[in-house]
Design goal:
Strand content: 5-15%
Number of helices: 17
Radius of gyration: 26 Å
Helix content: 40-55%
Distance between the termini: 72 Å
Structural class: alpha+beta
Strand order of the largest sheet: 3-6-5-4
Largest sheet: 4 strands, antiparallel
């Protein structure tokens, strides 16, 4: 590939040094993304804890219009015709409960676990079988009801050694996916092309189908995708999908959720900003006002999910939002890595909110309900 084509395809900014015209420095977002995988402490205990699961589900901001949107599906030849019914209040309540259950199923988050460690378990060494055959023999348990993760699979090597199979061999024998990897994962250019086209949900869905959650490749692909979303602040593309929870957990785990915090403040989601602080406190316990954010969670969760900015406010809403503003302000002053940007965003929200409060109180007073 010519250097001109590399520059045209990848370069965001090019700097030519006049005194050394043969040197070309290329700055590219694509080249700056380094995967961060869960290869240290196991994140599973914290990810699966009930408190963190509640926070992640609420941060997902479930929106039925997006959850139940029409999708392209090769298994369905034609779109289903919607059905309209006249129902009673009781029947409507039942239908809403069914919709909530369906939404919970569609928003089931992929598990976040540690990268698996190599299997090096020698069961026996039988020198009498040395050179019995030049091929390796694989033996697998085919008992009904045994899941692939716990199925016993062993191999006999030509030198007579009997050992447990490594993860790659187990994956091939337990194959429930395409044997050949999809082209988007084999070809790096195609993979990054999808990211540049903002096909994040498609990439993450394919990754979940092709790889197990503890495979290094799964961690690498999801990490690059999450970082690409974070670099471009395109969090809305994953909201109301099953991948937003793992995204928020990933950013919190690696202590790089300040851009997400900034986006929440700019969008006026002050309560979700507090939930993000509570998530940070639950994962790392390193915030100066962590207990305050944890206390506010119990007051925020019973309130409806905020899909749009507030238009009408009750006195209870005003009191709760005021506490949230104070909590976020303390975080910005003590723990934030983006103090100036977040401070300006919070100040803008505070001014907007104060105008909204005055408007609501003025309307109540005009109607005699103040």
């Amino acid at each position: 590939m010519s250097i001109l084509k590399i520059v045209r395809n990848n370069a965001k900014s090019v700097l030519l040094r006049c005194n050394e015209p043969h040197i070309l420095l290329i700055s590219s977002r694509k080249l700056s993304i380094v995967p961060s995988i869960y290869d240290g402490e196991d994140p599973a205990p914290k990810f699966f804890s009930s408190g963190i699961q509640v926070l992640l589900k609420r941060l997902t901001r479930p929106d039925f219009a997006k959850i139940f949107r029409k999708r392209n599906n090769t298994n369905v030849s034609v779109l289903r015709t919607p059905k309209y019914k006249f129902v009673t209040d009781e029947e409507l309540h039942i239908e809403k409960m069914k919709a909530n259950k369906s939404a919970d199923r569609l928003l089931q988050m992929p598990p976040v676990v540690k990268v698996h460690t190599p299997i090096d378990d020698v069961l026996s060494r039988d020198p009498a079988l040395t050179e019995f055959d030049s091929a390796r023999y694989l033996f697998t348990d085919i008992s009904f009801g045994v899941d692939n993760e716990h199925r016993m699979i062993v191999e006999r090597e030509p030198d007579g050694t009997l050992r447990s199979c490594d993860h790659e061999v187990r994956k091939r024998l337990n194959q429930g996916r395409k044997i050949r990897e999809p082209l988007i994962f084999e070809n790096e250019e195609k993979f990054y092309s999808l990211l540049e086209r903002q096909k994040y949900e498609y990439v993450l869905d394919r990754t979940c189908v092709q790889y197990e959650p503890d495979e290094p490749t799964y961690h690498k692909l999801t990490s690059i995708t999450y970082q690409h979303v974070d670099l471009n602040s395109l969090y809305d593309l994953l909201r109301s999908t099953r991948h937003f929870g793992p995204l928020a957990f990933y950013l919190t785990w690696h202590k790089c959720a300040d851009s997400l915090m900034l986006e929440l403040l700019q969008g006026g989601a002050i309560r979700e900003a507090v939930l993000l602080l509570a998530l940070r406190q639950a994962v790392h316990s390193d915030l100066n006002n962590g207990e305050e954010s944890t206390t506010l969670v119990s007051q925020i969760l019973p309130t409806p999910v905020q899909l749009t900015k507030h238009e009408k406010l009750s006195e209870e809403d005003i009191q709760l939002d005021t506490k949230c503003i104070e909590c976020v302000e303390k975080y910005i002053n003590t723990n934030s890595a983006m103090k100036s940007q977040q401070g300006l965003a919070l100040q803008g929200f505070r001014e907007y909110y104060q105008q909204l409060v005055e408007l609501n109180r003025g309307l109540k007073k005009a109607h005699g309900s103040a």
